């Protein structure tokens, strides 16, 4: 969907997200690394409390980052719309996610007036060894 | 699926889950309230850090509790299988989730040898005003 | 969601659906069997062409009936809105679906102004031995 | 996932699929157009009976092709395993699907011993204007 034009760069999205989640600073708010037409990449630094039994990164941590990556993607393309809300999320866990900095790349599949549908892929080992894949739908605030 | 017979009661599942997530105590680990054939109810007490912009309970908190409720349901019916892992989760957010103690009821749709498929409904206002609904698939460890 | 009041009964929904899909008559259009507050039951008579290898009813037949059941549920509660369109569908196949008349029961989880979210359960052997379960989201036409 | 090596080419997969669905010939069985490491492209020729109200290709037609594309992708990479069965499918409908030959491209996200998880994108207007996107999980027969 290369006809999409971002309205914000990575720094702009990071600033918006810090405003939306002021309390999240202490435990490593995910950072937007890059913004491109129809895409963003975010990263959450590895930290304690992210693991589940089996010494892999837990499902809720992966789901939260999938949601955040989609939110960042929406903000990058529609601008200051903090009230966009997730309406659905489907995640497939593909393999145990080894402990390390966690990356997510989100791609816009469809940006309409009412909704945005995003695909998100997550990994720690590398983008060719995905830990999880998600599709996330956001409802956009109506004027 | 009333032909299912739980192997553990609520106290037994709570004990297993405390063993699986020893660090989670400090911020209010969800409690299993009741276990019945094919069903469990869990509750996470309301606490700080559960909100998102708009003063509603955040999506990741709802997703995490949906996953926990399905995990508790699996443990209740297969016993001490801490290594069961989520293979997929789909959640639909139905309305803003007002701040209060968060309940989840999970129902077993299918318990096979390899997988368990669970439906989960979540609310704070009451079970007739759902905040979210999820389906969760767990992969069971193979002997 | 017992506060929902259907606007149409089973005969009314069947009439609307025949109007929406005039060509479907020849191969056994599903019939709405009953309408209740927040619920409908539909049935597709068993017929040739519904099977896949292994002599079970095929996934696409189950998905199509899940979609139809959700559509019937929406029509029953909002009336003559033929242009409601499916926006997403998630289905879990739970066990092989033995060849017989195929039933689906759809329940409204949330009926908003913009969307309806429905849960659908499908079976041939009986409602306590589900063949599949789906969640279906419909976008409602805006005035 | 370029480390995947297909075991069958397009002609090989087409031959297998004709064997699996011998009755489907008459109404335009989808054709596998190409097979590459981790990917296949399939096409279903436009024909009558594919439309829904609004003169767009119906959801069940899109879902059936998503399922077929994932099945073709699995067959291409594991060989003659006709008894692979869909275990779940999530589809997002992104825009009305204009009547024309319908294309689907499926990508393998994870091929394990027990399961395969595939992403599928569908279009008639072009791959940069998707009509739908799906994730499909197949359970593989166990030796």
Which structural category do the helix and sheet elements of chain A fall into?
A: alpha+beta
State the helicity of chain A in percent bands: 10-25%
- What is the CATH topology classification name of chain A? Thiol Ester Dehydrase, Chain A
Estimate the mean pLDDT confidence of chain A: 92
Strand order of the largest sheet of chain A: 1-2-6-7-8-5
Largest interface: A-B, 24 and 24 residues
In the CATH hierarchy, what is the superfamily of chain A? Hotdog Thioesterase
From the N-terminal CA to the C-terminal CA of chain A, the straight-line distance is 25 Å
Main sheet characteristics of chain A: 6 strands, antiparallel
What's the order of the H and E elements of chain A? HEEEEHEEEE
CATH architecture of chain A: Roll
Regions with little confidence, pLDDT below 50 for 5+ residues of chain A = none
Structure commentary:
- The structure is a homotetramer of 143-residue chains.
- With 143 residues, the first copy, chain A, is of the alpha+beta class.
- Helix content of chain A is 22%, strand content 36%.
- Chain A has a single domain, classed as Roll (Thiol Ester Dehydrase, Chain A).
- Chain A is built from 2 helices and 8 strands; from the N terminus they run H-E-E-E-E-H-E-E-E-E.
- The C-D interface holds C 20-21, 23, 49, 52-54, 59-60, 63-64, 67, 82-83, 85-93, 96 and D 20-21, 23, 49, 52-54, 59-60, 63-64, 67, 82-83, 85-93, 96.
- Strand 5 of chain C pairs antiparallel with strand 5 of chain D, so a sheet runs across the interface.
């Amino acid at each position: 969907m290369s006809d999409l034009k971002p309205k914000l760069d990575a720094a702009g999205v990071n600033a918006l997200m810090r405003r939306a989640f002021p309390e999240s600073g202490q435990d490593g708010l995910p950072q937007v690394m890059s913004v491109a037409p129809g895409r963003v990449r975010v990263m959450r630094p590895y930290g304690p409390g992210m693991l589940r039994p089996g010494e892999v990164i837990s499902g809720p941590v992966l789901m939260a980052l999938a949601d955040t990556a989609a939110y960042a993607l929406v903000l990058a393309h529609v601008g200051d719309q903090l009230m966009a809300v997730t309406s659905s999320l489907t995640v497939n866990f593909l393999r145990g996610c080894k402990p390390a900095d966690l990356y997510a790349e989100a791609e816009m599949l469809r940006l309409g007036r009412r909704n945005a549908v995003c695909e998100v892929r997550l990994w720690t080992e590398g983008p060719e060894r995905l830990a999880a894949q998600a599709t996330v739908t956001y409802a956009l605030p109506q004027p």
